[in-house]
Amino acid sequence: MVKVRFLGHAAFLIEGSRRILIDPFLTGNPVAAVKPEEVDADLILVTHAHGDHIGDAPEIARRTGAKIVAMYDIANYLVEKEKGITTIGMNYGPTEIDGVKIVQVPAWHSSSDGKYGIGNPCGYIVTLDGVTVYHAGDTFIFGDMKLLSELYGPIDVALLPIGGHFTMGVKEAAKAVELLRPRKVVPMHYNTWPPISADPEEFRRLVGGKAEVVILKPGETLEL
Fold first, then answer.
1. Is this structure's pTM higher than 0.85?
2. How far apart are CA 108 and CA 27, in angstroms?
3. Is this entry keyworded Hydrolase (predicted)?
């Protein structure tokens, strides 16, 4: 069994034979379900360098010994600026780390941050214990999402931003579901702050029967 736990905003913990933490923005996150010291991980995946995504990755990596996986530029920058961490830099494409299949895929966003440099934004397709999870990162919809489904599907669950302003809104995210064809979809990156307010029930309505929409509150878990 693989468990996908929503930690708030765009942070998720995927648990199976490995513990994979994605975008652990917990400190300063008004909707965070846990504190950084309450999370353990084997791998930490970072989608881009904005503070609400890289978050507490260095601190958690130092405490747990988890490896941080990120865009090559960000990984190198982290090693230069942070002490006592191990990073694995990659770029768009597939790899396998500690038995976990990972594909770093494009995202339409920005990544420049005064603290952590630049590096392109990305999403991740993770296959753990036979379950495939797509974390889109911060992105607008793009047609090549269909290729992701064709190459790496079937996708068991897609984690998609719906908050608008910085990412897709509910309309675009619902269309993305058509392209990705996941079995289940979990909305994320909404209602953390007023600029990204969105109604997940509207998203469910727009998706219709194309996928099962699972609306998780911070701290809740989806079992696959």
1. yes
2. 25
3. yes
Distance (Å, whole) CA 216 – CA 145 = 23
Task: State the pairing for strand pair 93-97/86-90.
Answer: unpaired
Q: Among residues 13, 39, 216, 213, which one has the least CA distance to residue 126?
A: 13
Specify the CATH number for 3-217; select among 3.40.50.2300, 3.60.15.10, 3.40.30.10, 1.20.200.10.
Answer: 3.60.15.10
Q: Which residue has the tokens 């469910």?
A: 204
Q: Is pLDDT above 90 for 64?
A: yes
What confidence score (pLDDT) does residue 119 get?
80
The residue ranges of every structural domain in the chain are 3-217
